[in-house]
Structure formats: C-alpha cells, structure tokens
Write a structure and sequence with these properties.
The chain has 326 residues and is of the alpha/beta class. It has 15 helices and twelve strands. A hairpin with a 4-residue loop joins strand 1 and strand 2.
Length: 326
C-alpha cells in the first residue's frame, strides 16, 4: 500500500442537516475493525463530544451486509503475544498503570516501546465508549448487517440501535477464540438485556438473531434496509433537538447512576437536576411555559396538540426554530 493510500481516512464522514453526521466504519473488505481504525474512531468520538456543531453521530458499516464483522484477530494476537503469561492480579495492576500512562504524552510515548501499549489501546477505547455514554451528543448505531465483538461493543455504547431487516445478528464470539470481550461487552450487554441472558450468550459465543435482539432490548428497531439510514438520521435529529446540556445530564444520570447504589444514583440525579435548573436554556423554557399557561388558562402540554408539537421541537417552546446549540 502506498503512503498516499495509507493516509486516506478510514472512517468516511458525511454531514447532514441539523448537526447530524454519518460515520461509515470498517472499510476493510471483510468488515474488520483493526489497529488503524481505533485511533480515528477515538478521535471522532472526542470531536463529536466537544464540537457544539455536531449534535448527533450515526455510525454504520462500509461492508454491504455487516456493521463490523469483529476486531482484526491478528491485531489481538500480535499484541497478546508480547504479554507475559501472568495472573489476573498482575494484569489488573498493569491495566491501572496503562490507564495512568495513557493520560500524558511522554508516558504514552515511553509505554509505546513496551507491552503496555496494548493496555493503553484498550484503555483508550474504554475512554471513548464511556465518553459516548456521558456526552451531550446523541450516538446512533445504524446496523446495516451483522455485527460481532468490538462492533457489538460500539453498538452497546450508542444511545439507540437500529438494524436493517435481514438474516442478521449481533453478539460476542470472543470465547470461541479463548478470550474475553475487551471493550465493554461484559458490562454493557448485561445492562441492556439482563445479566443472566448476557452471561449465557457470551459464554456460548452465540450471536442474537435480529428478531430476538429486538424482543430482549439489544436493539431498538428493525427497519427495511433501504430505509435504515434515513430512519437513523431522523431518529438522531429527533433526539438531538432536546436542549444539549440536558441531554448530557440525562445520559450521565442514567448510564452512570444505574451502575451505582440506589442512594448514590439518587445523589447523582439530584446533582444533575440542581445543576440544570439555573441554566439559561432551562430558565428560558420554564419562564415561557409559565407565561403560556397564564395566557391560555391551560398547561401547554395539555393544550390540543401541545405535547406532540413539543416532542417534535424537542422543547416546550412555542414556535421558533430548533436550537442549534444549548
């Protein structure tokens, strides 16, 4: 491969109206997600989280019938070959060191010369997927076909998962190669479909067929293949129309809070709610709601068509354009 070809971006970006972008992943002819894909994916998530012009990201696959086949196995095998055969207790310490080393440019460079680099790569992916779960940006997986392994883990981290109609499936194959999911599969899948069902699926290495995945909550919709992208963009724009800061607060309260004890989760909810009250957008919307109630003698959401209009706008504001930023 020439240097010019190697320099071409692997993730193809397409911009749509309303701050929605489509990101086509895994351009490998087999639909694999490899070592060169990870940095671009991580950088895209970081940019989407920080750029107020990006309201939503729709991930889809480049392969005609697969979202992401799975991780490139040679990548995992080669990185695994340089790790000494040690206990989980030792690798736990190594993972903590990798997490610390990943934070600084110098330590990343030094670690890049050692077996720690594999741990840093995993840590970087975990950081990106955690960022998706707490970001004010909406992330949608438009599953244009089957998906295994790291592709499923990216889908689990999205706010919404739509799958094209067809003989497709989603799940984890890792145990069939003697390894364990490494980018959140053992943690996010149980939170979506229940721990026992996820345990059995991951232990067996059996992917979940589309209809079953819909029934158990692993995906949210099955869409005719020729309508998948338009439906995914529509849903992304619909959710992203809500006030930006409130989106992030809700995602943090649900995605982080649900992993805490009830008392700690309630504390997080209180903290997010109190922080949201004085924000300019929230103050503007609440004042307008009170004024509208006084003017019409009825609550705006209970006025004929009021609730439906609010859902489409993403706010209770009456009239005007959807907000571009919060």
């Amino acid at each position: 491969m020439s240097q010019q070809a190697a320099a071409q971006p692997r993730i193809k970006i397409e911009e749509r109206e309303g701050g929605v972008i489509i990101a086509r992943l895994a351009p490998d002819e087999l639909g694999l997600f490899g070592r060169d894909d990870a940095p671009e994916f991580i950088e895209l998530v970081r940019r989407a989280d920080q750029d107020p012009a990006i309201r939503a990201v729709v991930f889809t696959g480049s392969h005609p019938s697969r979202f992401i086949s799975h991780a490139e196995i040679s990548w995992l095998q080669e990185d695994g070959a340089v790790i000494p055969p040690v206990s989980t207790r030792v690798t736990s310490v190594v993972a903590k060191i990798a997490h610390w080393a990943a934070r600084y440019r110098l330590t990343r460079w030094v670690a890049g010369k050692t077996p720690l680099m594999g741990g840093i790569q995993v840590d970087d992916l975990h950081t990106a997927l955690l960022r998706m779960a707490t970001s004010s940006t909406i992330f949608v997986a438009a599953l244009n076909g089957s998906v295994l392994g790291i592709g499923a883990e990216i889908a689990w981290a999205c706010d919404l998962r739509l799958m094209a109609e067809g003989d497709y499936f989603i799940g984890h194959l890792e145990i069939l190669m003697g390894i364990v999911p490494g980018s959140g599969g053992t943690q996010r899948m149980p939170r979506l479909i229940g721990s026992h069902r996820a345990l059995l699926a991951i232990l067996e290495g059996r992917p979940i067929p589309a209809e079953e995945a819909l029934a158990v909550g692993a995906i949210d919709e099955i869409v005719p293949a020729d309508q998948l992208m338009s439906r995914a963009v529509e849903r992304a724009a619909y959710l992203a129309a809500r006030p930006t800061e409130a989106i992030g607060a809700v995602k943090r309260a649900v995605n982080v809070g649900s992993s805490l004890s009830l008392a700690d989760g309630l504390h997080l909810e209180r903290s997010e709610m109190l922080a949201s009250l004085p924000r300019p957008k929230a103050q503007e919307l609440m004042k307008a709601y009170v004024r509208d109630t006084a003017a019409n003698g009825e609550l705006p959401l209970y006025q004929p068509g009021g609730y439906a209009a609010a859902l489409l706008r993403g706010t209770t504001a009456t009239g005007g354009k959807k907000e571009a930023t919060a």
